[in-house]
């Protein structure tokens, strides 16, 4: 039998299946659709997602297939008021200091191809009908349109969107609401071929965003439909053309696709029950402010997949899986609150809010553009490199300003960078400076790879401490930070969490041996 059933073959489900398969976990991935979707609703990949893809060995390949958007331009009314360089904002923080425009259809095709190389194919026209968690296995009933059959799995992960069947079967609440305002989205060709980048335009009664979609030069236009046309039943782009062109300072030559939608904001009450989990839009939906949705779902998949793999390979106890919800729900709730506040400000039709958007916000943005600290904080937030799991008690310790649960800072050293070691997708120890003899001996005894890097000004600026020990998780986050002299805490941490991370993978009986 397959170890894990993944329900849903969007980006979250594909990354979940890919991450499991790369770790030797047999996996089956199904989707109720008849085949790949030609639409490309989600398209922006942020730095943290690209860092995860680099761990899989294809981060740079994804970048080559997309369009790098490394500039943000702001416009208020008919005036250009400020410009940010994402490359400058993220310089030294990530190997990917930009946002990558990569259409969802092409993105999913790329991930499916990588999954197929591992012997796993998406099974289309396959719908989950029911689930029963028996405690030791999960029985899942799947219909393929011709027959219905039940099979047993070690775990089931629902990556099946906002209307998740998995979440419905679990009976997990999905509280939240929807906006009254109508948004539009269009893919268009712009006269004059604007420079690659992100354009934001504001006026008293509207806002719009433009960013590249494909290498063919198509641009994605997103915005708020003005009140005077938003109630029109057959609203089309021509009803919005003058509004959009004024906001962004462009001429639209051709429209290839147009649609409207309303924004939802919800977070599931739980991200799992027993052996069944949810991830991506099945667990959280929110406003498109900052383009966080797809990247957050991929982050869910990364967080959960290595934990399932370690449990199935008998390198951790099942209690490790409890940390998935403890780490990811707080972030989802914080993200919802943040994007919702931004969203409410952007769509507020009150006179005061309109004045702030057009007269105060441009000045604030222009001021921020002149100072390094706010620009770097903006990059960390939008790129998701700022995400930390400090509040989960699984992660422990502090050395320098780095605490257990923080993302490992990216550093360039002679001959390479410290993220190269993360491509092992495994636990490892990092020391910036000289490791003490005790930690060298302990690493050998525990069979955990120890990587030594130079301690320099960049390491100090990143918050690392000279000669400290950092136990890095398979997802690139620090599980344990030990100041020099505290090396003895490593064994205690590992034993206290019942980890057997230095042992070779020993697949459990329930993990099975056959790939889907």
Provide the fold topology.
Blueprint: E1 4-7, H1 11-22, E2 27-30, E3 44-45, H2 47-55, H3 59-65, E4 67-69, E5 71-76, E6 79-85, H4 86-89, E7 99-101, H5 104-117, E8 122-123, E9 127-133, E10 138-143, E11 148-153, E12 155-158, H6 165-170, E13 176-178, E14 183-190, E15 198-203, E16 206-212, E17 219-224, H7 227-230, H8 241-248, E18 252-261, E19 264-267, E20 272-273, E21 276-278, E22 284-285, H9 293-312, H10 322-347, H11 351-368, H12 372-383, E23 396-399, E24 402-403, E25 412-413, E26 416-417, E27 428-432, H13 437-446, E28 450-453, H14 457-461, E29 469-472, E30 478-482, H15 489-496
Parallel strand pairs: 1-2, 1-12, 2-8, 5-15, 12-21, 23-30, 27-28
Antiparallel strand pairs: 3-7, 4-7, 5-6, 9-10, 10-11, 13-19, 14-17, 14-18, 15-16, 16-17, 19-22, 20-21, 23-24, 25-26, 27-29, 29-30
Helix pairs in contact: 1-5, 1-9, 2-3
Keywords:
alpha+beta; 7-stranded mixed beta sheet; 32% helix; globular; disordered C terminus
Short description:
Helices cover 32% and strands 26% of the residues.
Structural class: alpha+beta
- SS field, number of helical segments: 15
Instruction: Give the beta-strand count.
Output: 30
Shape: globular
Biggest pleated-sheet summary: 7 strands, mixed
Radius of gyration of CA atoms, rounded to a whole number: 24 Å
Average pLDDT rating: 89
Taken as a percent bin, the fraction of beta residues is: 25-35%
* Poorly predicted segments: 506-516
Q: From the structure provided, what is the oligomeric state, counting identical versus distinct chains? A: single chain
Distance between the termini: 9 Å
